[in-house]
Automatic annotation (TrEMBL):
<feature type="transmembrane region" description="Helical">
    <location>
        <begin position="180"/>
        <end position="201"/>
    </location>
</feature>
<feature type="domain" description="Histidine kinase">
    <location>
        <begin position="271"/>
        <end position="485"/>
    </location>
</feature>
<dbReference type="InterPro" id="IPR003660">
    <property type="entry name" value="HAMP_dom"/>
</dbReference>
<keyword id="KW-0597">Phosphoprotein</keyword>
<dbReference type="InterPro" id="IPR003661">
    <property type="entry name" value="HisK_dim/P_dom"/>
</dbReference>
<keyword id="KW-1003">Cell membrane</keyword>
<dbReference type="InterPro" id="IPR036890">
    <property type="entry name" value="HATPase_C_sf"/>
</dbReference>
<dbReference type="InterPro" id="IPR003594">
    <property type="entry name" value="HATPase_dom"/>
</dbReference>
<feature type="transmembrane region" description="Helical">
    <location>
        <begin position="20"/>
        <end position="39"/>
    </location>
</feature>
<keyword id="KW-0067">ATP-binding</keyword>
<dbReference type="InterPro" id="IPR036097">
    <property type="entry name" value="HisK_dim/P_sf"/>
</dbReference>
<dbReference type="GO" id="GO:0005524">
    <property type="term" value="F:ATP binding"/>
</dbReference>
<dbReference type="GO" id="GO:0000155">
    <property type="term" value="F:phosphorelay sensor kinase activity"/>
</dbReference>
<dbReference type="GO" id="GO:0005886">
    <property type="term" value="C:plasma membrane"/>
</dbReference>
<dbReference type="Pfam" id="PF00512">
    <property type="entry name" value="HisKA"/>
</dbReference>
<dbReference type="Pfam" id="PF02518">
    <property type="entry name" value="HATPase_c"/>
</dbReference>
<keyword id="KW-0812">Transmembrane</keyword>
Length: 485
């Protein structure tokens, strides 16, 4: 298997989602493959170097067959080797066969260094090289340099002879050190290259995503809530990314909500200042007139009534503001009691019956006879519904039809209060539940906080309220409260 193939496998594996455990297992397997490849390359290179350099040395320091050799070739002995089918050969300086003792069973008449090496080792064990032997450097009668070798069938011996180099000379020792040093250097380089390549590949799935994540965090520190982390890697990293992105989204939402709240607070302060300034200015002006001596009794009584009404308006406005601020506090607790809602609602309608009669309202009640029992704050709920009733009384003409309907739907209380009076302008209906919003056709001097308080009370009970318009009810308030709140 090639290194490029391993890389492809690595990339293909990491295209799928992995957790850290799976990632480490894959790393171990691929590391093993890389080390195996390096070992194979090292083995091949070692064999090449040994054959090319180390065994290119004619000085052979082996004496195990020296007793069979004789400078007089005719006196060379085979001894017990003849019984094993062995034979002996004498080679000249060119490694040509010049003498044979015994029956030669191959046709090699001149040897190469490689053949001599394979003959005296197990590397060449193959059908093409069925013999093993021993090689010994010898001298002739007149000091000639020969090679004396003995060959035998591999199947007839348990151990092969070994062809050993002679490192007695300084040049040979230097050659050995240089060659082995080169070999170890090549192996070390192969290992380092393999580790570097695999580290680069692995970093794509750990280091690179983490660097990108750090960049996202730095952008986030600059209050860049639009930043999003886009990691591609292990499951755990993607989980961290998802949690980070969700956190950023929520903080971005909180930031936008805070902007809206700040804007609402500023508008609320302006509205409060305006709504309080008007009655206070009136009280200040008319009280100054009362100090004058030339006013009549009728004028005095008139001024006192105006001052009284403005004082009541200011008190109601302050009370409503206090109530609204309490409801907006998340720590505010409801005083819940388990009551039958429909019977309680009928009691509230009875309290307003005289006011409805005074304006000649046509009441249409469609309150379910079945019991709807759940826990709610009866004081706050009365305030919420009373605000809607007061809104109907103040914003509609005489002889208006008022419809009140209550029923249970999918474990939710549905309460509808609608009238056939003049429809509220769309631009106002969309913000009718905001503080200090008043309809244009209002003839009252209300604070403009009633419906805002109603909405907060319903929401405190886990419900919702909306204003819609139908063919028969131009103004229809729809309240939905879960009875398991």
């Amino acid at each position: 298997m090639k290194v490029s193939d391993v890389m492809k496998i690595n990339f293909n594996i990491f295209n799928k989602k992995l957790d850290v455990k799976g990632f480490l297992i894959i790393n171990y397997l691929i590391t093993f493959l890389i080390l195996y490849i390096i070992m194979q390359l090292s083995y091949k290179s070692s064999t090449f170097i040994l054959e090319k350099f180390i065994f290119n040395n004619e000085q052979i320091n082996i004496t195990s067959i020296s007793t069979y050799y004789n400078k007089n070739f005719s006196q060379i002995k085979l001894g017990i080797l003849s019984e094993m089918g062995a034979w002996e050969e004498v080679l000249d300086e060119n490694k040509k066969v010049i003498y044979v003792k015994g029956e030669k069973k191959d046709d090699i008449m001149q040897y190469t260094e490689k053949q001599l090496f394979e003959l005296s080792s197990s590397i060449g064990d193959s059908p093409e090289n069925p013999y093993v032997g021993e090689v010994l450097p010898v001298e002739g009668k007149n000091g000639e340099h020969y090679l004396f070798l003995c060959k035998i069938d591999r199947l007839k011996v348990k151990h092969s002879f070994i062809y050993k180099p002679n490192f007695s000379s300084k040049s040979d020792s230097f050659l050995s050190l240089k060659t082995y040093g080169t070999l170890y250097l090549i192996q070390a380089l192969l290992l380092l290259i393999g580790i570097y390549i695999y580290s680069a590949i692995s970093s794509k799935f750990i280091t690179t995503p983490l660097k990108n994540f750090v960049i996202s965090i730095k952008n986030f520190k600059k209050l860049d809530y639009g930043t999003r982390s886009t990691l591609k890697g292990l499951n755990e990293l993607q989980e961290v990314q998802n949690e980070f992105n969700e956190m950023v989204i929520k903080l971005e939402e909180v930031k936008e909500e805070n902007k809206i709240i700040d804007k609402s607070k500023k508008r609320l302060l302006v509205d409060i200042s305006h709504d309080l300034k008007t009655p206070i200015t009136s009280i200040q002006g008319f009280s100054k007139l009362l100090l004058e001596e030339n006013i009549t009794i009728e004028e005095r009584d008139k001024f006192l009534k105006i001052i009284h009404s403005k004082a009541i308006y200011s008190a109601v406005l302050i009370e409503d503001l206090f109530e609204l601020s309490k409801l907006e506090d998340s720590a505010y607790k409801l005083s819940l009691a388990e009551l039958e809602f429909n019977e309680w609602l009928r009691c509230i309608i009875v309290e307003y019956y005289e006011e409805f009669q005074n304006k000649h309202f046509n009441l249409e009640l469609n309150i379910s006879e079945s019991s709807i029992i759940f826990k709610f704050d009866k004081k706050l709920m009365k305030r919420a519904i009373s605000n809607i009733f007061n809104n109907a009384l103040n914003h509609n003409e005489n002889y208006t039809s008022l419809k009140i309907e209550s029923y249970l739907k999918d474990n939710d209380l549905i309460l509808k209060i609608g009238s056939n009076g003049d429809a509220i302008d769309k631009s106002i209906s969309e913000t009718i539940f905001n503080p200090f919003v008043k309809s244009d056709n209002s003839n009252s001097s209300g604070s403009g906080l009633g419906l805002a308080i109603t909405k907060k009370i319903i929401e405190k009970h886990g419900g919702s309220i909306k204003l819609i318009s139908t063919e028969f009810e131009k103004i229809l308030f729809v309240i939905c409260i879960p009875i398991k709140f």
